[in-house]
């Protein structure tokens, strides 16, 4: 495996584990989005996702449960993408997370 593929694989594993929050509601939104949509995102949206998962769980919960929206436009955009993905996709395979 070359260094680029190895680095990409390591980054993907980190993203996966940072997407696993330990709060079931967040896991059900973040993990399927990462696995099904992240690779299709442009670099700007991928960067927004990486920044988003660095946020506190309570903020993520409020945003992803649509109780509030992030003020920052890039963050609001990625949150809306995750919510829309969850609403339009059958994620029943992830209920065992």
UniProtKB/TrEMBL annotation:
Main location: cytoplasm
Keyword Cell inner membrane in annotation: no
UniProt keyword list: Chaperone, Cytoplasm
One CC-aspect GO term: cytoplasm
Domain of life: Bacteria
Record's subcellular location: Cytoplasm
UniProt keyword annotation of Chaperone present: yes
GO BP terms: succinate metabolic process
Classification via Pfam families: Sdh5
Similarity comment: Belongs to the SdhE FAD assembly factor family.
Full protein name: FAD assembly factor SdhE
Organism the protein comes from: Halomonas caseinilytica
